[in-house]
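Lecture 7 notes: from sequence to structure.

We start with a single chain of 315 residues. Read the sequence below before looking at the structure.
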Amino acid sequence: MNRIDRLTGMILLLQSHRVITAEQIAAHFEMSMRTVYRDLAALGEAGVPIVAEAGVGYSLMRGYHMPPVMFTEQEAAALFMSGEVTEQIADDTLRGALRSALLKVRAVLPKERQDQLNRLKHAVGVWLNPRSKEDNHRSLMPLQQAVAHRRCVSMAYNAGSKGVITSRIIEPLGMMFYAREWHLIAFCRLRQEFRDFRLDRMVRWEVLTERFMGHENFSVKAFLESSLNEHAVLPTTVCFAPESLDRVRREMSCPDVKEEVLPDGRVRMEMLAYSQEWLVGWLMSFGRHVEVLHPPELRQQMRDMALHIASRHEA
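Now the structure, written as tokens:
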């Protein structure tokens, strides 16, 4: 990144934060503190009204805004690709806002950039195949706003395994998309602990006017990593036929998969499974192209399900 681009990026970074420290700026641009101070001084000399508060950080004087920034070809293409990916995992509430935002971006691009994006639109596609159907939740934007405005949510939740529906009031702290589902991370007042709620299991929900306090230092990513590590307690070894590998690698959501090609051409995979319930159904969909080697209980579950299916199809 050349200096002009970096200085422009620094103004945008300052504009997007109420206050930011020199250390955060250095980390963002991966540069030294000395360079940060030199660039801040250069911006000040150029007339950019930067406010420095000792022990607090830097900010732009209230009311200052940069003129519209023109996108490079790479930036415009990156925005387009991000939009294509988000389209696949969004519901109508988020998809509509996304399309409106991208339309505004396209409107300020020169004709040459617009033509490039039009060519990309017909040449590039994304298909993530999330498990939930669109009708299962039209809640992304309202719940995202509840997170942003720190509003409590009342809901009826189906825990899944036992099918018991409980009424809860939660304090939503973040949203994550993983394992092909949207999840709401929140503090549950019923259980008095932080929980991970799947949106497709929220039978009914309502954003309340009540605001919650606290949890300022809570990190959604740290919670999720800790939670997944805690529950990733099912070491699994599976053999797949070569003809199924493309689909396996496309759909698998387990982390740290180790692969080994066997003499017969099959591929043995060692993985950590988060959900045994999901894993059984997914593995069964491969039919004769899959064999579970470990653990014994998963192997038995596969056998029981296969026998049950066979009994349903007896003459």
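Residues 242 and 266 are 6 Å apart (CA to CA). Keep this in mind for problem set 3.
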